Amino acid sequence: MAVKNEIKEALGSIIAGKILYDEPMSRHTSFNVGGNAGALVLIKSEDQLVGVVRKLREKKIKFLPAGNLTNIIVRDGGYRGAILLMTGMKEIRYEYTPGGGDFISAQAGAALAKVVSRSATDELTGIEFCAGIPGSVGGAVWMNAGAYGKEIKDVIKAVFLLDAAGGKKTMNREEISFGYRKTEFPPDTIILGAQFKLEKGERVKIKKKISEILQWRQKKHPLEFPNAGSIFKNLPMQAAGELIEEMGMKGMNVGDAQISPKHANFIVNRGKATASDVLELIALIQSKAEKEKGVILEPEVVIVGEN
Question: Catalytic annotation on 270?
Answer without folding.
Answer: no
